[in-house]
Amino acid sequence: MEYATPVRRMFANILDVILFFLTLIIGYIIWWLIVLGRGQTPGKQLLGIRAVKRDGDQSGWGNTFIREVVKAVAHSFVIGFFADVVLLLMDDDEHRSLSDRVANTVVIRNQPSAM
Q1: What is d(CA 95, CA 33) in angstroms, rounded to the nearest whole number?
Q2: What is the pTM (predicted TM-score) of this model?
Q3: Exposed / middle / buried, residue 21 (Cβ in 10 Å: 0-12, 13-18, 19+)
Q4: What is the number of other CB atoms lying within 10 angstroms of the CB of residue 109?
C-alpha cells in the first residue's frame, strides 16, 4: 500500500469544500453518498486516493461515514480546517489524522486497474 501524502490529502479536503458549493450542496451530497462506499469523498476520488482499514480491507460505507462525520465535527467545532493537516505532518509514517484514528483507517493512493 502506498500512503497518500499530507499535501494530497489537504488538496482533497479543499476540493471537497469547493465542490460542496459548486454543486449547490445537493449534488455534492448525492456524489458523496455514491463514492462513500469505496472509502472516498468527491475530492479524494478526483485525486485518486481513498480510505481503507489499516489491515488493507475495504473501508465500506459505514466506517467511511463515521470517519467523515468525525472529520466534519473536528473541522467545524474543535480544531479548524487545517488542524488535520498539522496532525498529519506531526504523526507517524502512515499520516493518520484524528478521523483516521477513530475509524481505524489509513488513506492510500488508488492502485491502477489492470486491464
Answers
A1: 25
A2: 0.77
A3: exposed
A4: 15
Per-residue pLDDT tens for 29-78? 999 999 999 999 999 999 999 999 999 999 999 999 999 888 888 777 65
Question: 13 φ, ψ to 5°?
Answer: -65, -45
37 burial via Cβ count (<10 Å: 0-12, 13-18, 19+): middle
Between the CA of residue 64 and those of 53, 92, 113, 114, what are the distances in Å? Answer: 9, 21, 22, 25
Which triple of cell numbers denotes residue 57? 480491507
Amino acid present at 92: D
Task: Kindly report, residue by residue over 9-37, the tens digit of the pLDDT.
Answer: 889 988 998 998 898 889 889 999 999 99
- Which helix H or strand E contains 68, and what residues bound it? helix 60-73
AA letter at 79: I
* Angle, CA 91 vertex, CA 87 and CA 93 arms, to 5°: 135
